[in-house]
Each structure stands twice: as structure tokens, then as C-alpha cells.
Amino acid sequence: MVILKIIALSLSSLIVLFILTKLTGNREISQLTMFDYIIGITIGSIAAEMATSLEDDFLEPLTAMIVYGLASIIIAILSSKSLKIRRFITGKAKILFNDGTLYKNNFKSGKIDLNDFFMECRDKGFFNLSDIQTALLEPNGKISILPKTDKKPLTPNDMQISVKQEKLVFNLILDGNILYENLKYSGNNEKWLYKELSKQGFKDIKDIFLATCDYENNLSVYPDCSKKDRNDLFE
What is the C-alpha to C-alpha distance for residues 43 and 46, in angstroms, rounded to an integer? Predict the structure, then answer.
């Protein structure tokens, strides 16, 4: 009975976590602020407590989870409507480096040292500060870098070359199954798909792991190699 209760409570906590995550939105993942981090850890801890609350009332941790989730939603709404609240909750970007000057006070207030800063610069492909015009410490802890104009990657616009605008690539086959909605959105039909597959020597859909169609209607096919040689080339 104890095992069954743990299973039931665990599943319940997962359902509540899923609902709260859907309500709070992708912001929790894509723009994790210090407040979001604290809320996420706290809700996770409460969910774990709820899953093992054999003697205590499971409604108590459930209520706490809902309160934290609602608090996160309310603060997100207020932040989207008020610039002052947004800056108070999420903070604002700090200039770490600009036009040859390192701002020591911003390094201190951002709790980042030079070694961490240089590591982030190298991670973004900048091994020399003289290649950087401005570096900002974003509220989520990431460092954004604006390179000097002559150090930016060359683009077709710089060379005055006209190129076609790329568009979405559609997955048409995934793990041996045709994605009919994507096939429809790509402007093609099943007859076209089988014809293109036949051109590339594929007869059975089940032999295909992935097939994609680009904006020029080119079909790229990746066969299922799971039944072939499993040797690791990097052993």
C-alpha cells in the first residue's frame, strides 16, 4: 500500500508540475532570471516532498506549489506591464567592457571576475579584447558581445550579393511515419513524396528515420541505420 501511495502521489505531483509549467510558459526555460531560478527550485523541492508525504497531508505541499506557481504568473504579468517592476525583479544589463574600458564596479556588482569574463569571451570566439567593442552582462547572467565592425563575420550584404530568403524546413517523415500535416503545409502530397523517395532509391517508408523538405522543395532523406553496423567509429 505504501508503494502504491508513493506512485499515486508522484504521478499527482508530476501532473501539477506539468500544469504549472504550461501556465508559466516558456519564459521559465528561455529567460531564466534569478527569481525564476528560485521559484523553480522551490516548486521542485515541494513536489518531491509531496511525492513522499506518506503520513502528512499531501494537500499542504500541493497548496504551496500552487501558491508559488501563481506568484510566478502574477509577477510575470506585472513585469510585462510595468518597466519599474520588471527592472526590480529581473534587473538590468550591466556594461562590463566598452570601447577599451573595463568597468570594475559592474564586475563586482555582477559577481563576475575577469577569468569568468575571458572564458565567456573565448566561448563566443573572441580571444582578444581588442576585437570587442562592447560586452554586456545580461540580467539572466549571460554575456552579450558586440564585436568591432571590422571583426564581424562577412555577410552577403557586405559584399552586395543578393541571396534568396531561407524559409522553414519541414519534417515530412519521422521514424518511419509520414507527417501528413507537415506534408500539406509544404505544398506537396503523398504522391509527390513517394515519387521523390523512389528517385533516391527508397521503397519502404519504414526504412527512413528522417526526411525533410526545404524552401526550394528539395527532399533530404536520412535512412534508419539502427539495423546496420553498430560499431562506434570513435572507440
Answer: 5
Q: Which residue has the cell 523553480?
A: 40
Per-residue pLDDT, 64? 78
Cβ(21)–Cβ(30) below 8 Å: no
In sequence order, which residues have a C-beta less than 8 Å from that of residue 98 and are 6 or more positions away? Answer: 133, 134, 135
pTM for this predicted structure: 0.56
- The one-character DSSP state at 141 is S
C-beta of residue 51 within 8 angstroms of C-beta of residue 159: no
CA distances from 57 to 15, 65, 162, 164 (A): 18, 14, 67, 62
The answer to whether the CB of 36 falls within 8 A of the CB of 72 is yes
CA 102 to CA 169: how far, in whole Å?
A: 43
d(CA 73, CA 31): 14
Strand partners, 32: none
Residue 213's pLDDT is 93
Please tell me the distance from the alpha carbon of residue 143 to that of residue 141, in angstroms, as a whole number: 7
Alpha helices in 136-224 (DSSP H): 180-185, 190-199
Longest Cα–Cα distance of the chain, Å, equals 73
Distance in Å from the first CA to the final CA of the chain: 47
- For residues 50 and 186, the model is more confident at 186
**Chain segment 148-161, per-residue pLDDT in tens:** 988 888 778 878 88
Coil, helix or strand at residue 62: helix
Rounded CA separation 20/64 (Å): 12
CA 28 to chain centre: 10
